[in-house]
């Protein structure tokens, strides 16, 4: 049995392709019911399935014509997003302005959906329909659809303020299940009950929210936090449908890196996160290096902010090479410890690995990430010295050159993120290396994030704007009302007056 999507051979009787996950059962384009190959009419709704059946006779000439290509059953997630308040906005703007605003919205929707691996099926007025699972199926398609919905709702809110329409909002609905599809890009739309459900779920969502059906919630709850949205009667459904409101992303794909159940919501840092997301996409899309220095007192939320960026990046369709390391204030070999921690992560070298094991994994890692033998000969000794698996006599310039070249070669595979924590303890040599990396590797997709307490400014007052691609992000303590909201989410049931006394 040949898969119509990727042409892979599958065993007879298989329902899904072993290579790409495409459904192998043929489906009626009218009702979605399965049918056999060559069957002229659907035995569920009577729709003609072949050219001969539709014409009512056998075509003349070269014998019977082959049946028209039949749709297949695919398991997909469908997203509908609609603008709320755009009609009233269009009544106060001239036609050219309206066309320009709608064009910007559609371009933004294409970007968000594309970054999350979705396919836009159609635009309907100011609504967007997108699908995940066609033409290629992934295990996390439903999660990507919900992430995209949350991203679009947030983007429209920001867009409304930018264009002088603060009441402009988006609402979204996601449904997951089987549909009928040709599974070929550009050849047609998915059809079936799930498409209708997604549209109707969107129609009952409040402005600025994302609602999903029960199937979607079940397969995405490891990474997305939900609250019950009640049961809603939907047109065409005999019984009310239980819906859920997507609150926020709480983990990486499939729940990876999820924090404690007591992790508080992400409050009052949305604008800061959008800045980091914009910087990340500038790096990935333009292929340029950027440095962002995040500064604030202990416990203000620097690590949480960057962890939210990591969760966001993990849900995108493109791979990101993420690294993190922490500076320490004392100990042996602390000068470049944070960078060594990152290299160990990339090369899978445990900190307690002996020199022989470390050298072997270093050689294997260089074979994987660095194509040229001559470059491996330059990088190997520098990384070996950093990791303590070799002890060559290298000058600082030689070390910096080898480390920088390794990071550049990583970035030629995928965008690279380097997160340095507790930079108030950083050795001056590490700060110098980061400056050199940003200067010499400016045309590589590398995002460097440094997290530091204000003490770093006492040593490097210009950090991080000491390099042209540097951005400073200052995090101030949360307002009392935001702290109260955090406490309420963690210790529910405590009277507001008691919470206010705690905060005060």
Secondary structure: number of strands: 14
Tell me the strand order in the biggest sheet.
4-5-3-6-7-9-8
At CATH's second level, what is the architecture of the largest domain? Answer: 3-Layer(aba) Sandwich
Helix content: 25-40%
Summed up, the domain count is 3
Shape: globular
Distance between the termini: 69 Å
- The total of helices stands at 16
CATH superfamily of the largest domain: P-loop containing nucleotide triphosphate hydrolases
Question: What radius of gyration results from the CA coordinates?
Answer: 27 Å
Strand content: 15-25%
Average pLDDT score = 88
Structural class, by secondary structure, is: alpha/beta
According to CATH, the fold-level topology of the largest domain is Rossmann fold
User: Which residue ranges are poorly predicted, with pLDDT under 50 across at least 5 consecutive positions?
Assistant: 51-67
Oligomeric form:
single chain
- CATH class of the largest domain equals Alpha Beta
Biggest sheet layout: 7 strands, mixed
**N to C succession of SSEs:** EEHEHHEEHEHEHEEHEHEHHHHEHEHEHH
Search tags:
alpha/beta; Alpha-Beta Plaits; Rossmann fold; 3 domains; five-stranded parallel beta sheet; 16 helices; 18% strand
């Amino acid at each position: 049995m040949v898969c119509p999507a990727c042409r892979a051979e599958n065993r007879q009787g298989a329902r899904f392709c072993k290579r790409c996950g495409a459904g192998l059962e043929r489906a009626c384009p009218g009702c979605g019911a399965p049918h056999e190959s060559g069957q002229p009419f659907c035995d569920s709704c009577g729709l003609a399935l072949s050219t001969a059946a539709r014409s009512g006779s056998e075509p003349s000439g070269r014998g019977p014509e082959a049946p028209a290509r039949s749709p297949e059953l695919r398991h997909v997630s469908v997203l509908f997003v609609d603008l709320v308040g755009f009609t009233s906005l269009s009544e106060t703007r001239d036609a050219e302005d309206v066309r320009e605003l709608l064009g910007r919205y559609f371009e933004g929707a294409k970007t968000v959906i594309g970054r999350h691996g979705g396919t836009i099926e159609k635009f309907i007025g100011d609504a967007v329909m997108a699908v995940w699972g066609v033409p290629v199926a992934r295990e996390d398609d439903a999660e990507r659809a919900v992430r995209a919905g949350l991203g679009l709702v947030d983007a429209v809110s920001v867009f409304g303020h930018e264009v002088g329409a603060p009441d402009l909002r988006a609402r979204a609905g996601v449904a997951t299940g089987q549909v009928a599809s040709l599974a070929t890009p550009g050849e047609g739309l998915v059809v079936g009950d799930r498409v209708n459900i997604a549209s109707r779920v969107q129609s009952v969502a409040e402005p600025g929210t994302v609602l999903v059906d029960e199937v979607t919630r079940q397969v995405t709850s490891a990474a997305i936090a939900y609250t019950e949205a009640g049961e809603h009667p939907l047109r065409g459904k005999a019984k009310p449908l239980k819906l859920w409101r997507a609150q926020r992303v709480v983990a990486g794909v499939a729940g990876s890196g999820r924090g404690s159940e007591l992790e508080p919501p992400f409050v009052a840092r949305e604008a800061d996160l959008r800045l980091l997301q914009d910087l990340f996409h500038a790096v990935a899309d333009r292929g340029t290096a950027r440095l962002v220095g995040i500064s604030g007192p202990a416990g203000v939320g620097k690590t949480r902010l960057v962890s939210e960026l990591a969760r966001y990046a993990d849900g995108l369709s493109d791979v990101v090479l993420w690294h993190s390391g922490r500076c320490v204030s004392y100990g042996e070999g602390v000068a470049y410890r944070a960078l060594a921690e990152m290299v160990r992560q990339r090369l899978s070298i445990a900190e307690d690995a002996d020199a022989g094991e470390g050298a072997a994994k270093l050689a294997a890692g260089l074979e994987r990430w660095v194509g040229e033998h001559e470059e491996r000969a330059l990088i190997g000794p520098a990384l070996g010295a950093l990791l303590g698996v070799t002890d060559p006599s290298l000058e600082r310039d030689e070390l910096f050159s080898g480390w920088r070249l390794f990071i550049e070669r990583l970035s030629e595979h995928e965008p690279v993120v380097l997160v340095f924590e507790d930079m108030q303890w950083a050795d001056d040599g590490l700060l110098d290396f980061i400056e050199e990396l940003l200067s010499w590797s400016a045309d590589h997709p590398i995002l460097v994030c440094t997290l530091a307490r204000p003490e770093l400014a006492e040593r490097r007052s210009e950090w991080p704007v000491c390099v042209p691609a540097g951005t400073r992000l200052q995090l101030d303590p949360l307002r009392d009302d935001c702290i109260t909201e955090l406490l309420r989410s963690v210790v529910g049931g405590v009277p507001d007056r008691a919470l206010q006394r705690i905060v005060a």
